[in-house]
Design brief:
Layout (H helix, E strand, L loop, with lengths): L4 H16 E2 L2 E2 L9 H17 L13 H6 L8 H16 L15 E3 L8 H4 L4 H22 L5 H26 L2 E6 L4 H10 L6 H11 L1 H8 L17 E6 L29 H12 L4 H6 L4 H25 L13 E2 L5 E2 H18 L3 H17 L20 E5 L10 E5 L2 H15 L3 H20 L32 H19 L6 H24 L6 H20 L4 H28 L1
Antiparallel strand pairs: 1-2, 3-9, 4-5, 6-7, 8-9
Helix pairs in contact: 1-2, 1-18, 2-6, 2-18, 4-7, 6-7, 6-11, 7-13, 10-13, 11-13, 11-14, 13-14, 14-15, 14-16, 15-16, 15-17, 16-17, 16-18, 19-20, 19-21, 20-21
Length: about 625
């Protein structure tokens, strides 16, 4: 791939350090004023690679790579960088904790008014939002893991006390974020003949079957999801309406804590705020919640034992919702025997709004479900084709015209009306999302990593390269934020110059960091094994071993030192080729070819010597 994740991550770290540190002090905020989501995204630009990519670790000063130290030189040396991170993360945790000890997950400056001429009130700006819950889960897990390892390298008692305080605050915030996610989950139930029901039926009915047949088939396909939802014991989303088998439903996460969400009995995390969000699932917040929850049961979380006993209980409840939600949307997106509903672009939600961005979000959940089920390449290939089309429709891999409406997917992005936010007395709030290109890139990388055939992986890496070329052009070209994102006007010249930004968008940059970590993990994994190449390599190896044995049989026991060295080298190559045949057939192919070439050289040399005699 052309993405070169290590080089790009180092460039981001250098730019993030340059942008954040001025006069020895850490500065929060970027394109948007500081808030709990943006500040978490800013920290994750450093903490996520440090926790997910071994060569970027910062928690063992003596093991920090030289190029990593060069990139973060604006923050200090190998010892000073982790100490600074302890202070900065602790500052974040204190800032977003109120006087009662409750963690704050407010959207702040990310909230916009959905009503021209009216500005959000202070109470509205303090509303909790799912993005903050999700980002906090990822950041707190990275922080706790960082603290556990860094503490083992520290001798000073005062610094150990700082690390202990940071870990305690991080664990408390992690619990609160998990509780917030459990109280933001929702199930929307509706009859088939309602507007939402008719829209859902039309979406999944790709074969023009009678609606009653579609409803019956859909009910059967969702039977296990329905049963799983009825088993909920804590959090929101519990409903008796699913007892009626004739009702349709959808599930996922609202934009914040839903109205009348019950409190959850747990360790002391302070008062749990009353929710105001209407109990309607949002595709965007659902996908972000799923991404954050996945970190709770990652291999790193399990191996390091990052969760307390109480958090394990909450994580189990979230995992059930994670599995049911992915299963639900994967079923809806790929329903029927004809064309998948997901292939009928653009996706239409049950409130009758449609956008290619919604298609991309459903695709994301289908990809996650396929990964969970270890799906075959045939399904992955269909998803890959959808991603290719979405990249074209989003003018990522195709040129945009001057007044192309697809540009709005990137700038200003898709606006999501936050129903229920107006109940606090101000205007209804809006959440603006502009990560279309980043989501396409991340899901293409995911499919490439799941591919089992070299052909599919080659197709998906080609798409990754094309999308990355687009994303790379959108970096901020100059200033302290150089090499950070996002400047879409670099690509879409029709965007008004006044909308071109030079301050970093931590929202977009953090999502690119996620993509680069995904790319790094893909590259560090084992290469795909081609069965055709393995068969050819085996044939070559068998021939080489046979000829080598024949050479040993024919050679005199009194061969010279040059011949003896050549035979020993040839034997070592054969042993190595046999070792790697099952995992790296291409390497075995080359080694066997080199042996055959050397054996042929010996044969020719012997013939010439015999002829001379």
């Amino acid at each position: 791939m052309k993405i070169q994740p290590r080089q790009r991550l180092l460039e981001i770290w250098a730019a993030a350090a340059r942008s954040a540190m001025h006069d020895g002090k850490w500065h929060w905020g970027g394109r948007d004023p500081s808030n709990s989501v943006s500040d978490a995204e800013q920290l994750l630009c450093i903490m996520y690679p440090a926790s997910a990519v071994a060569s970027f670790k910062l928690d063992i000063p003596d093991a920090t790579a030289d190029d990593v130290l060069d990139a973060l030189s604006n923050l200090g040396d190998a010892v000073e960088v982790p100490r600074l991170l302890v202070r900065v993360i602790t500052s974040y945790l204190r800032t977003y904790t109120d006087e009662n000890g409750a963690s704050l997950f407010s959207g702040g400056s990310y909230f916009h008014s959905d009503e021209p001429g009216r500005e959000p009130t202070a109470d509205q700006a303090n509303l909790d939002v799912v993005d903050s819950f999700s980002m906090s889960v990822s950041l707190m897990l990275a922080t706790i893991g960082f603290a556990r390892v860094f503490r083992t390298t520290v001798r000073r008692e005062d610094l150990r006390a700082e690390i202990d305080e940071m870990e305690a605050l991080a664990s408390r915030r992690l619990t609160a974020a998990m509780v917030g996610l459990l109280r933001s989950f929702t199930v929307k139930v509706f009859p088939p003949d309602s507007p939402a029901g008719r829209t859902l039926i039309n979406t999944v009915n790709q074969g023009d079957a009678p609606p009653r047949i579609v409803v019956a088939d859909l009910q059967r396909a969702l039977r296990e999801v329905r049963a799983g939802i009825r088993d909920f014991t804590i959090g929101s989303g519990r409903t008796t309406e699913l007892d009626n088998p004739n009702r349709l439903f959808e599930c996922g996460w609202a934009w914040g804590v839903v109205k009348d969400a019950p409190e959850i009995a747990t360790d002391d995390i302070g008062p749990q705020p009353q929710g105001v969000a209407q109990p309607d699932p949002y595709l965007y917040f659902t996908v972000n919640a799923l991404d954050g929850i996945a970190d709770l049961f990652s291999e790193r979380t399990t191996v390091l034992g990052l969760l307390s006993e109480e958090q394990v209980r909450l994580a189990q409840a979230l995992r059930l919702r994670w599995e049911l939600t992915q299963s639900y949307w994967a079923t809806i997106g790929s329903f029927g025997q004809e064309r998948w509903p997901l292939e009928d672009l653009p996706w239409r939600t049950t409130d009758e709004k449609e956008s290619d961005y919604f298609s991309l979000l459903v695709t994301s959940m289908v990809v996650q479900d396929l990964h969970r089920r270890r799906a075959t390449d045939s399904d992955l290939r269909r998803v890959g084709e959808i991603l290719e089309e979405l990249a074209e429709r989003g003018r990522i891999t195709r040129r945009a015209t001057h007044e192309d409406q697809a540009i709005r997917l990137h700038e200003p992005g898709v606006g999501l009306s936050l129903d229920g936010s107006e109940e606090l007395g101000g205007p209804r709030l809006r959440w603006q999302v502009s990560d279309y290109a980043a989501v396409v890139l991340k899901r293409a990388l995911k499919v490439a990593g799941m591919a089992r055939s070299t052909e599919l992986r080659d197709t998906m890496t080609a798409l990754v390269d094309d999308v990355w070329a687009h994303v790379l052009r959108r970096r901020i070209p100059s200033g302290d934020a150089q090499n950070l994102w996002d400047s879409p006007r670099n690509v879409f010249t029709a965007i008004d110059a006044k909308d071109d930004h030079q301050a970093p968008s931590w929202y977009f940059t953090e999502r690119i960091v996620e993509c680069l970590v995904e790319a790094a993990n893909l590259i560090s994994g084992s290469p795909l094994r081609s069965s055709r190449l393995a068969a050819i390599a085996l044939d070559l190896l068998n021939e080489a071993e046979h000829l080598f044995d024949d050479e040993l049989l024919s050679s005199s026991s009194e061969v010279g030192p040059a011949m003896r060295d050549s035979l020993l080298h040839t034997q070592a190559s054969l042993v190595r080729a046999r070792e790697v045949l099952s995992t790296r057939p291409g390497t075995a192919f080359v080694l066997a070819g080199e042996v055959l070439r050397e054996l042929d050289r010996l044969t020719v040399a012997r013939r010439e010597a015999t002829g001379a005699t």
